[in-house]
Every structure is written in C-alpha cells, then in structure tokens.
Amino acid sequence: MSSVAIAAGGTGGHVFAAVAAAEAFLRHGVEPFIMYPAADRAWKFLDEEGAAERFNILELPGFNRAGFPGSIPDVLRQARAAMKIFDERRPSALLVVGGYSVAAPGIAAISRRIPVFVYEQNAVAGTANRMFSYFAKTVLANIPAQRISLPQLVVGHPVRRRLLDAAASNPPPQTGLRRILIIGGSQGARAIDETMMELYPLIRRRFPAWRIMHLAGPDLADKASAAYRSVWSDPENPDGVYAFRKDMETLYPCADAAVSRAGAAAAAELALFGTAVLFVPYPFAAAQHQHANAAYFAGRGAAGLVSEGPGFRERLWGALSSLLSDDAARSRMQQAFRSLSPANDGAPLVQAVLSAVGKRGAS
C-alpha cells in the first residue's frame, strides 16, 4: 500500500481537515500518516477524533508558536526529524493544510524530492501555504483563494465521515421549537459569547418559539448557564448551554439558524447541513481571511455577515431579528448555502493528489 504524509497543527480547523483527508485516503487504499509538532494543541484535536486509533500519528520536536518564524534552530530540528521519517517511510506525497506547523515537513519533503501538495482552506491564503505554493506539485483549494500562486484546483472541503453520515440521515423530529446554534467557546469567540448572552432576554421576548444551543466554552459555561436559566426556565427544554460538545453531528441537524466565526471548517460544516448562519469574522485573523470566507458566501445570498467593532451588539441583534422573523428569507439562505456547500468526502482532493503522482487508489 502506498502512503501519503499529512502535515497538520495549530487550529482545530486545520486538524479536522487533515483527519477528514486521512479518512479519504484510507478509503482509497492509501495509508495516511499525520505529522504534528509536540506541545502543539493539535494533539487535543487529534485525541478528540480518536486519530491515533485509526492512523499513524507521528510527533515532531515542538516549538513555541511565538518563536516562529524567528526560531530557526527549532524549525531546522523539526525538519531533520521529518527528513528521517521520510527516509524511513518514503511517502508518495506530502499534503500540507496550512498553519505554521507545516513549515518543517514542507522543507523536509522538498529536500527529499517528495511531491508537495498545498491545500488552502480559506479565501485568503496563509503565509506557510503561500510559501510552499511556489514549490508545490499542485495547489488545491477549498474555494477560490487569494494571495497564492495560480493555477488552483478547487476540490472543496473534506469533512469527517460522521458529519457526512449525519447530514445524509433523516432530520430530527420537529418539536414546535426552533433553535439557534451559537458556536463560541474559544478566546477568539468571546465577543460572540458575551454579546449573545446579552441578547438572550430579547430573543426570548420577541421570539418565544426559539431556543438556544450555545457552545460557550469552559470559562463562560457557568455564567452563560445562569443567564440561560434566568430567561428560559421551562424544565422540559433539553437545550441550553454547553462547555464543550464533540458530537457536532448531533447539534448541527437540530439548528435552524446559527451564529459563528467564519473559519473554513465551520463554514463547510454549516453549509453541509444548510444552516442559515450569521458569520461574525474574527477581526484579528491573519490577512482578514475569515472576513473573506464570510464574504464569499454572503455575497451569494448564502449567509449573513456581521462585523465586530462599535455598534456590534445592535448590528447583531438587527441581523438576528431579521433572520429569525422571516421564514421565507431564511429558507432561501439555507437553500443557497447548501447549493454552494464545499463539503465533501475528500474524494476530489485524494483523486487530484493520486492522479498527479501517477497512483491509482481503490474505487
């Protein structure tokens, strides 16, 4: 069996894409192994996905993100470790999915003449992917990406199998209630979490048939839960606030609307389920890539876009009120989002890689 190396690390979005790609390679008869830096938060996401039970997971010497790209000795130490792995395993290709942690595996692959494939998830390419795009066999993109070498081959976004299965199954039974999914829970989403807590009473008063499913994170879960209980006191309601949920395949089908950051993985997963979403791009994302992601869908009538800054609470409430009160507009948005969905089982990406290196996978 031929093998493919996948370099992952950094954010959950990068790691989830790497896991979905690994699942797809395995289904096509290609053995994937995932490389990540020690001490990187990638391990948390890999562990959540049970990746070590399904794939070979190889740890590289770690380094502090604050030191990159200035910590050249750390990068070179990682590159030497990656070269040793490549000498022992000799993969047919290296797939890099972006983020600072792909630097050393990319350098090692180039030095060992292993074909490099860049996969860009966002509408604006990150620094590492831009750098390796000049050496890449092929640049693969989720949606058309800016600031990266051309040509690009658009292959959509690989999504984990359990989400694909949930989207293909029957929808949950209707209970008469509608639900808003708030995807927060991280430091970068704190503005969404806190603003939505302020809006709980307004939602309850104006839209009594709507309920909240709020991923608030461990730091805000108690505060959000208290705020939720003070507004929605009906004991039979099973929804509410969660510190963390790994079973997003359970929550997505229940959501009639959502408020979320505009990371590529979140956008692909929400599109897969055709959820009417208001994107609130993280204002400090590199090269404003989250704003570009959101604008790609919003400009096509498939999502709403609300920017942070002065007046954010009022703008979010105005957009949310319009979304929740207009069933026809929400339905149109859902249909447009689903039709533009880049989510797939990873087959287009795998076929592009195998074709370029002259391999044939299992059908």
Query: What ranges have pLDDT less than 50 throughout 5 or more consecutive residues?
Result: 66-70
CATH class categorisation of the largest domain: Alpha Beta
Oligomeric assembly: single chain
Strand order of the largest sheet: 3-2-1-4-5-6-7
Radius of gyration: 21 Å
CATH architecture of the largest domain: 3-Layer(aba) Sandwich
Q: Biggest sheet, in brief?
A: 7 strands, parallel
Percent of residues in helices comes to: 40-55%
Distance between the termini: 14 Å
Order of helices and strands: EHEHHEHEHEHEEEHEHEHEHEHEHEHHEH
Q: What would CATH call the homologous superfamily of the largest domain?
A: Glycogen Phosphorylase B
What's the number of domains?
2
- Average per-residue pLDDT, rounded, comes to 91
CATH topology of the largest domain: Rossmann fold
| General form | elongated
Relative strand content: 15-25%
Q: Total number of β-strand segments?
A: 15
Question: Structural class, from secondary structure content?
Answer: alpha/beta
Short synopsis of the structure:
With 363 residues, the protein is an alpha/beta fold. Helices cover 43% and strands 17% of the residues. The protein has two domains: 3-159 and 345-356, 3-Layer(aba) Sandwich (Rossmann fold); 165-339, 3-Layer(aba) Sandwich (Rossmann fold), CATH 3.40.50.2000.
